[in-house]
Design a protein that fits this description.
CATH superfamily: P-loop containing nucleotide triphosphate hydrolases
Structural class: alpha/beta
Helix content: 40-55%
Low-confidence stretches: 187-202
Order of helices and strands: EHEHHEHHEHEHHH
Largest sheet: 5 strands, parallel
Mean pLDDT: 84
Radius of gyration: 17 Å
CATH architecture: 3-Layer(aba) Sandwich
Shape: globular
Number of helices: 9
Number of domains: 1
CATH topology: Rossmann fold
Length: 225
């Protein structure tokens, strides 16, 4: 069975960009056969030109899970990168319809994945002209995801930064699961001086502050005297 990396986060948090970057890097740079599973809910909304009704949410969640499981069983595949999971659909069901019935099945599936990466809220919110709602909904989604993951005892890693910086953080988290060091480990991380995330923390601002401190230390050590 392939290693499954599940990406979670509200709208405009960089899930798709990170999924693309991970697939490209793992496939082309490291030679690890990697499949990216796109977000079924978004594809459905684009095809139907509308968001789903409350009674249509369960089918969207089930299809996302089916796609991920099917990808993990493909011959020769080492890594599956899931650009969202059923847990995202469950969160939206609560936020839009006050319906929490999808959580048990979604959390049961989430537990089966090898690693959960939660997108930080440091990227600017960008409207797409289609279905993105607002920065407030993005923050509410983050709060709901953290609450459910922590209540269920499902560990997660929060990733911050743009472009290559976020990719490097994700690769550091994935490496130990493959038994490989995919990117060099920063000394301040290995020595325990600054944590780049805190999977037990429910305060995104705290995580972001720690990440900013790490970046400042890296910049100060890289700047010539």
């Amino acid at each position: 069975m392939a290693l499954t990396i599940a990406l979670l986060g509200g709208e405009s948090t960089g899930k798709s960009s990170l999924a693309d970057a991970l697939q490209h890097h793992l496939n082309n740079t490291l030679g690890l056969a990697t499949v990216r599973v796109p977000e079924h809910l978004r594809a459905w909304c684009e095809a139907m030109a509308r968001p789903p009704r409350c009674d249509e949410q369960a089918a969207r969640a089930q299809e996302q899970t089916r796609l991920i499981n099917a990808a993990s069983r493909l011959p020769g595949v080492r890594v599956v990168v899931a650009d969202t999971t059923a847990l995202m659909v469950a969160a939206y069901s609560e936020l839009y319809f006050n319906d929490t019935r999808l959580y048990p099945a979604a959390l049961a599936q989430q537990r089966r994945y090898s690693l959960t990466l939660l997108m930080g809220l440091d990227l600017p919110w960008v409207a797409d002209g289609l279905f993105r709602d607002s920065p407030a909904l993005r923050e509410a989604t983050d709060t709901v995801l953290r609450r459910e993951l922590q209540a269920a005892g499902i560990g997660f890693q929060t990733v911050y930064g743009q472009g290559d910086a976020r990719l490097q953080q994700a690769l550091r988290a994935i490496g130990p699961l493959l038994g490989e060091t995919l990117v060099p480990t920063d000394r301040s991380l290995s020595e325990g001086r600054v944590a780049w995330n805190c999977e037990k923390c429910s305060d995104p601002a705290c995580e972001h502050r720690l990440f900013s401190q790490l970046l400042q230390r890296q910049t100060s050590t890289e700047t010539p005297a």
